[in-house]
Amino acid sequence: MSTIVKICGITTPADGEAAAAAGADAVGLMFYAPSPRYVTVPAAAAIARALPPFIIKVGVFVDAPAELVLQAVAECGLNVLQFHGAETPEYCQSFPVMTIKAFRMKGPETLAELPTYPTSAWLLDAYTPDRHGGTGATFNWELARQAGNLGRPIFLAGGLTPENVGAAIRQVRPYAVDVSSGVEAAPGRKDPVKMRAFVGAAKGALAAA
């Protein structure tokens, strides 16, 4: 089975349609106001309506009130919730859909945190002290490879581009890869050519291994 591709930070229906046309399996909708990729619930609902029915819709949250999460699930038809803040395991498990907990990988010590979150999957991102993702920075992929032995599907994020995603997949063998800034023309605006190149490189990575 080829690696699942999630394109995160979709901000317009046109970009959502372009991501689907490029072959993405999932799109991420960012409900975190400080992000340049932030969308309101009504805007995200409009994007969701424009997507083909087979595209997985992932809501991305950072320490959000449960009421906002439930509103987004109801109005946007979210299939998966992705949490990037200091959410507790209990909070992550309190919603009626699949969940992903994101971890910013400082080093080997971060691996010990993963099993404390029995979410549906874990997303591994680069660590920066002042941002919760979308930084364009990579981290030591050997840590992600080790995380794959800990019992949950791994979403690999952090600085992935059309140029390096194939190597990342061959080293880590993640369940999925997650890209945002690596396929953008500008923050919050996706580049259809880069999205097609990213999906092609990701889907072909193991065939070329």
Task: Describe what you observe in this structure.
The strands form 2 sheets. An 8-stranded parallel β-barrel has the order 1-2-3-4-5-6-7-8, surrounded by 5 helices. It has a two-stranded antiparallel sheet with strand order 9-10. 32% of the residues lie in helices and 22% in strands. With 209 residues, the protein is α/β, with parallel strands linked by helices. It has a single domain, classed as TIM Barrel, CATH 3.20.20.
Task: Give the helix/strand layout.
Blueprint: E1 4-7, H1 13-22, E2 26-30, H2 41-50, E3 56-61, H3 66-76, E4 80-83, H4 89-92, E5 98-105, H5 108-111, E6 121-126, H6 141-147, E7 154-156, H7 165-172, E8 176-179, E9 184-186, E10 189-190, H8 192-204
Parallel strand pairs: 1-2, 1-8, 2-3, 3-4, 4-5, 5-6, 6-7, 7-8
Antiparallel strand pairs: 9-10
Offer a few descriptive terms.
209 residues, globular, eight-stranded parallel β-barrel, 10 strands, two-stranded antiparallel sheet, TIM Barrel, alpha/beta
Number of helices: 8
Q: Care to count the β-strands?
A: 10
Shape: globular
CATH 2nd-level architecture: Alpha-Beta Barrel
Order of helices and strands: EHEHEHEHEHEHEHEEEH
Largest sheet: 8 strands, parallel, barrel
